[in-house]
Design goal:
The structure is a single chain. This protein is an all-alpha fold and about 325 residues long. It has two domains: about 90 residues, no CATH class; about 220 residues, MetI-like (MetI-like fold, Orthogonal Bundle), CATH 1.10.3720.10. About 75% of the residues lie in helices and about 0% in strands. The chain is built from 18 helices and no strands. Helix 11 runs antiparallel to helix 12. The radius of gyration is 25 Å and the shape is globular. The termini are close together.
């Protein structure tokens, strides 16, 4: 088991290097520092002196990979790649093009994202699994057919509809909660109730259908028939046998999206004015702050790789065969 975990950890290193190189190519080769300066300063009536001044102020005036004019190790360290990309491996994102400390912003904005995403994930998982088990339990009845039809209908509706509809009905018409905004501490709960409910409800269609499919694949296998033959009720069979044996695909779906807890929801945070990492990324794109966008791209990729690593490790907890791999 230990060898398995070590191998998976070692696999993550070249993936992070590849992500770093790809991020560098996208931001500094495909889109050169001169292009960045023009987009920041405006495409029209931009002088060469203004471009050079902007590049010097933001550290984009260095060579990309090799500084032939520097001495010794500075040939490598005094380059854009070393200055802007090497620090990403240690999650040191530096200063944004607007002069803000990116690490400080991420630490501050991670908590609102977690406050929104974690309850949405936990409540959504419980609701989806319970509803899926309910549909499987009554799989031969009209109730299950109606439930399946409803999940397809919910799956076909855009999440944007739930957001706008929820804001209009719950916040504007009924005035049960604020329509948008955020506050620290327990005062922030009233701002999070509606987006959490919408986040859970918008995922019911796809979630219930996914888990229902997993459970139906297990329900007619030999070990389930054996459990029924021993006299176990349908509820005991579902919870003691079907659910544990469906844990690997469930863990795959859950652990992989754990990085999204930190990255936040772009759409949800933007519509509800929650100062999380999702809205932070949107604001950086709108203001063309390339340092923040680059940092968030790498952070999202790194957290996704960590999520995949946690998925592999979690397999060893639920599947004895993986421990022997």
């Amino acid at each position: 088991m230990l060898n398995y975990i070590i191998r998976r950890c070692l696999y993550a290193i070249p993936l992070l290097i590849g992500v770093n190189i790809l991020t560098f190519v996208l931001f500094f080769v495909v889109n050169s520092p001169d292009d960045m300066a023009r987009m920041q300063l405006g495409q029209k009536h931009v002088t060469e002196a203004a471009i050079n001044n902007w590049k010097q102020q933001h550290g984009y005036d260095l060579p990309l990979l090799w500084n032939s004019t520097a001495a010794a190790q500075e040939k490598i360290t005094h380059t854009i790649f070393f200055q802007k990309s090497v620090g990403l491996f240690f999650f040191q994102f530096g200063i944004s093009d607007g002069g803000r400390n990116i690490n400080a912003d991420i630490k501050e904005r991670a908590w609102p994202s977690l406050a929104l995403a974690f309850p949405t994930l936990v409540i959504g998982l419980l609701v989806n699994v319970c509803l899926a088990l309910f549909l499987v339990m009554f799989r031969h009845s009209s109730l299950a057919q109606l439930g399946t039809l409803l999940t397809v209908m919910l799956l076909s509706i855009s999440s944007l509809f739930y957001i706008i509809g929820g804001q209009f009905v719950v916040a504007k018409v009924l005035r049960l909660v604020p329509i948008s905004g955020y506050d620290d501490g327990l005062h922030g709960l009233r701002f999070l109730i509606l987006p959490i409910i919408i986040g859970v409800f918008s995922g019911v269609g796809s979630g219930v259908r996914w888990y229902r499919t997993l459970f139906l694949e297990e329900i007619d296998k030999d070990y389930v028939r054996t459990a029924r033959a021993k006299g176990l009720s349908e509820i005991e069979t579902l919870f003691k046998h079907v659910l544990p044996n469906a844990m690997i695909p469930i863990l795959t779906g859950v652990v992989v999206i754990l990085p999204l807890l930190f990255m936040g929801s772009l759409m949800m945070e933007s519509f509800f004015s929650i100062p999380g990492l999702g809205s932070y990324t949107i604001d950086a794109i709108n203001s063309q702050d390339f340092a923040i966008v680059r940092a968030m791209v790498f952070l999202g990729s790194g957290l996704y790789i960590i999520g995949l690593l946690l998925t592999d490790i979690s397999y060893t907890l639920v599947d004895p065969r993986v421990r022997l791999a």
